[in-house]
Sequence to fold (161 residues):
Amino acid sequence: MGDMTGDQLQRLQDEQKKAMDVCEEKIHKCGKFIDDYKILKTQLETLPDKLNYDIMVPFGPLAFMPGKMVHTNEILVLLGDNWFVERSAKQAAEIVERRINSTDATLQSIQAEKSKIMSHFDFTGELNKMMQDEDVVEIVEEYDEEKERQWKEDRRKKFRM
Fold:
């Protein structure tokens, strides 16, 4: 610990709090992605039930006009990096399921990271309290490289015999 002051511990705790906030934001985003994927999967599973649907098609930012949605079993899927492929609704639903699983794994890793940060945050808070207590005495041991080297050399000689 050495020369660590209460201000430095407070700064460390502030940084840990920021890291927890970042994790919380990522957790919220992952949860939103999973919810959106689940809604999409439900829609993909029910979409091919009919050959066409009557819908209101957006016509500019303020207007809608009646239209029909056809080819409801043909879905254009983004694979990444602007690569698209045409898949059936069933295949698209399987892709969505894989993305849900991947996002869920990411969510779990972020939650584990947040848990670690929280334990560090708690420990830093306890350490800060201990530093402010007057009854706590920090043990400082002097270190001399020359004495250490001499001790190692003497020990080596002693155990060679």
In short: The mean pLDDT is 89. Helices lie at 6-46, 89-132, 145-160. The beta strands are 53-58, 64-69, 74-80, 83-88.
